[in-house]
Amino acid sequence: MSDQTIRLTTAQAIIKYLSNQFIEIDGVERRVCGGGFGIFGHGNVTCLGEALYDAREELPLYRGQNEQSMGFAAAGYAKQWLRQRFMFCTASAGPGTANLLTSAALAHANRLPMLMLCGDAFLTRLPDPVLQQLEHFGNPTLGVNDAFKAVSRYWDRITHPAQIIQSLPVALATMLDPADCGPAFIGLPQDVQGWAHDYPASFFEKRVHRIRRQAPDVADVADAAALLKGAKRPMIIAGGGVQYSGAMAELTAFAETHNIPVVETIAGRANLTQDHALNIGPLGVTGSNSANTIAETADVILAVGTRLQDFTTGSWTAFSKEAKIIGMNVGRHDAIKHLSLPIVGDAKLGIAALDSAIDAFKGPQEWVDFAQAERGKWVAYTDDITKPSNGPNSYCQAIRMVNDLCDPRDRVVAAAGGLPAEVTAHWQTKDLSTVDVEFGFSCMGYEIAGGWGARIAQHEREPDQDTIVFTGDGSYMLMNSDIYSSVLTNRKMIIFVLDNGGFAVINKLQNNTGNESFNNLIADCPTVDAPFAVDFEAHAASMGANAETVANPAELGEAFKRAKAADKTSVIVMKVDAYDGWTTEGHTWWEVGTPHVTDNAKVAEKHAEIEASRAKQRQGV
To answer: Considering the domain boundaries, does residue 591 fall inside one?
Structure first.
């Protein structure tokens, strides 16, 4: 080492650089990288593993059970920290890295930061073909890691130690950029990881980062203000970007000042509390009658921090074709969707600018009265359907029971299947930014793994609160090993396994499109000879968790109280009905492909019924 340079391996330099990157959050400096999730193999243990060992205090490494679930945990961690901090995932060359593809896609779809440090084939090619290497005869540079180009915001393969001097700052800037945020992938050939270089000492100096806030264009704000001031039936769609911007207070104040009803997207749940007078409910396919009713008649829609996916827009049938949309988003790609009048910029700054520009404008009180009356009807419906005495055991009964008993700052996590819709519809927000319904990629298996990552982050911020996970039996069977991870790391979760005997929500879609039940519920699988019930309680207990099976929602509530009092992960199992107890109200049209030609009369009838609603669909206007 000289005064100006430090000689390190590539792997050592990467870890030393990450250890010295900080961010200020609420006046407290923290490492922007909270640590990592890792499974070692020959592609990352000898060099990157050696570097991580020396930094194990600064960058704690959580041992994963499955690379895909590691990525989900990193996503859950980033969501809990509102994209201000991230985790890295390290996997070996070959199948270990390939397992991260799905979680990289989830992070990409949800615009979440995650750093992947993955093994790669030898740059020299002297030992080729090596263990687990894919060979492309016409292109020796092509391998598994190239598949990540489609699911990464930043992708690089390190071919020389000096390259990281440029690559790492760009990867970090990408992950912290509000508009371009997403996963960063860095391929590390096994030989290059161990190669040494004289790095400038300045590269490793402490740096404190800030999330930049982009101010909107003055002319765009003026155009939007003119449109909004002419509105007779204005509405705000509050998306997940409101939380990432830290603009919840500004959004609430704006809505109150200008008397505008607010509806929430799935990612935007918990932008307002349940009892706020202007909270009209969740919007879209998994929404509420109240939000969808006002969306049908709104004439000007201010969409803040939402990418307007099809579950929000009802495949673009939720709004009047005459309605005008103002797209306020830090990402240009999202701000201009469906010919919206764009305000490209940070939500906090954008709301403040628009607030000034529309002066004393207020939405008509009769419009707000109408919206609130619709909200009252929806609340009455949800109160009724969630009663434990109302029909057989259901998702929504379990959700409401837990909701009534949880603490305001407890975090709820759900993902694929029927539970995201039921949580979105029925979870009554007690405090802001406490809901994680992963429906950007709608990914089975996220629930428990994402809950573990969220719990790690929650432990750093609010250690006395709980992470509550809702999962179905299908997602549980796909990915459950982070129950074991949570026990090993003493990061307690409360997990509800609601068993309906298979993939019941897809069976429902199958039936709703005229098809017979086939290959979704275990009982309807033609290749299953002897259906039997999985003992989820025994399985969870075998991984070290507290576990019990309950017969009904009342017992589930008592089990939840015991889980709250416990000091380690608890798994509570309850059977629910596969056919009855679904929320039948609150759904907009959703476009799914149905057969245009069929010999099945029921399928043909449903196809015609579904297509009849297409007349409401906006087509880029």
So the answer is: no
Phi, psi of 5 (to 5 degrees): -130, 160
In 12-150 the beta strands, taken as DSSP E runs, fall at: 21-25, 28-31, 33-38, 61-63, 86-91, 114-120
Distances (CA, A) of 434 to 204, 401, 403, 529: 36, 17, 12, 43
Domain count of the chain?
3
One-letter amino acid of 380: A
Residue 549 in any domain: the answer is: yes
Domain with 292 in it: 218-378
Domain limit, last residue, from 378, 397, 412: 378
- Angstrom distance (rounded) from CA 122 to CA 193: 10
Contact by Cβ (8 Å): 352, 250? yes
Q: Are residues 287 and 373 in the same domain?
A: yes
Is 400 found in the same domain as 338?
Answer: no
Q: How far is CA 34 from CA 20, 61, 78, 83, 521, in A?
A: 12, 9, 10, 12, 40
- The conformation of residue 183, written as its DSSP 8-state character, comes to E
> What's the rounded Cα separation, in Å, for the pair 262 and 76?
26
List strand residue ranges (DSSP E) for 432-505, in order: 435-437, 467-472, 494-499
CATH code, domain with 356: 3.40.50.1220
Query: In whole angstroms, what is the distance from residue 586 CA to residue 581 CA?
Result: 14
The yes-or-no verdict on residue 107 having pLDDT over 80 is: yes
For 112-164, the pLDDT digits (tens) are: 999 999 999 999 999 999 998 889 999 999 999 999 999 999 999 999 999 99
Does 42 share its domain with 161?
Answer: yes
Predicted TM-score of the model (pTM): 0.97
Give tens-digit pLDDT for 198-230: 999 999 999 999 999 999 999 999 999 999 999
**Residue 204, Cβ neighbours under 10 Å: how many?**
16
